[in-house]
Amino acid sequence: MKKRLRIAVVMGGYSSEYDISVRSGQTVLAHLPAEKYEAVGVLIRPDAWTAQMDGKAYPVDRNDFSFNVDGKKYNFDFVFNAIHGHPGEDGALLAYLEMLGIPHSSAGFDKMALTFNKMYTLSAVKAYGIPVAPSVFIRKAEPVDVDKIVQNIGLPLIVKPNRAGSSYGISKVNHKDELPAALETAFAEDEEVLIERFIEGREFSIGVIKLNGKPEVFPITEIIPEGEFFDYEAKYLGKSREITPAHLSKKEEKLLRQTAARVYEVLDLDGVSRAEYILQDGKPYFLEINMVPGLTEASILPQQIRAAGKTLASVFDEIIQANLPENLRA
Predict the structure, then answer these.
(1) Which of 37, 276, 282, 294 is positioned for an S-S bond with 299, CB 3.0–4.6 A?
(2) Who wins on pLDDT, 159 or 296?
(3) Is the bond into 245 cis (omega within 30 degrees of 0)?
(4) How sure is the predictor about 236, in pLDDT bands with cuts at 50, 70 and 90?
């Protein structure tokens, strides 16, 4: 009988998304097939990295990403990345794992760094003809000309941190005198801010996973927030309607699915992603992509997995098997 592979499910991180990441990691731990994998939660915090086993926490040796229990050393065959934000989603942790030769569930560290930066991602997909909203990029130390921004982009605007997730620090600006406060909110999360024209239309979230070398698109979710846009409360506190699968014409569904697959391909991604789009007048505007999608009970991707007729266990298994070296695959 082939031995079970030891899987580290990394969670936590150094950002405002710490608690959400822990909840996502716990979901992965609960659903990994126990007959194939020995799953160990690894909590990543700024002050400590610890492996969680039998109700105890053991320090992780960062020289080789191992831990020691009563004189016995434990190594990992694979790392399942459930860290939203730094250092899991921006590629930093993945670069470390790749240097150690430990396979993981995400795209390569360079692709993770690219997609975590909203401005870089928009520039990349725009070069391939994917529609995006007009935008302005601002660093914290730079002067802000409110009148020029409004003149160039128009109103309303969406102001968001350039490198953050879970809708932290995002504001909608309907009048130009609201822009300074929105910038202050965004700069509290990141020293780089993206200001985009607000695209009016239907909003959709689309999960994509690479299987057998090709992107597979999950059933599409339409997001109908109670407020003006899909903010943190809408995303995690139930203040939105999420319809999976979305009610779309065959033409609209085909267009969105093709666009989602195309974005995944042009960014040369691996693992599972979830991207957001606004459909306006038959044109799908790309908003952003999340390379470590939320996996909590309130998250969108689990809804899409179920709508595809799959289980979380089967999809997590597919992610691991697709990213393992040949000699370790089942």
Answers:
(1) 294
(2) 159
(3) yes
(4) very low
Task: Determine contact, residues 22/43, Cβ cutoff 8 Å.
Answer: yes
Residue-level pLDDT at 289: 95
Q: Residue 116 is inside which H or E element, if any?
A: helix 109-116
Cis peptide before 46 (omega within 30 of 0): no
Strand partners, 25: none
Phi-psi region of 115 (alpha: psi -120 to 50; beta: other; left: phi over 0): alpha
Find all residues with CB under 8 Å of 55, minimum gap 6, and list them: none
pLDDT > 70? residue 111: yes
Domains (ranges, CATH) in the chain? 5-113 (3.40.50.20), 135-197 (3.30.1490.20), 200-316 (3.30.470.20)
Cβ–Cβ under 8 Å, residues 124 and 190: no
Give yes or no for a contact between 270 and 98, defined as CB atoms under 8 angstroms apart.
no
Banded model confidence at residue 49, pLDDT cuts 50, 70, 90: very high
Q: How many residues does the chain have?
A: 330
- On the question of pLDDT at 211 being above 90, the answer is no
Rounded Cα gap, residues 137 and 135, in angstroms: 7
Q: Quote the pLDDT of residue 208.
A: 97
Nearest-angstrom CA–CA distance, 72 and 248 = 56
Runs of H (alpha helix) within 267-311: 300-307
What is the model's pTM? Answer: 0.89
Distances (CA, A) of 233 to 21, 83, 195: 16, 20, 21
The bridge status of strand 78-81 relative to strand 5-12 is: parallel
Q: 3-state DSSP: the chain helix, strand, coil percent, rounded to 5?
A: 30, 30, 40
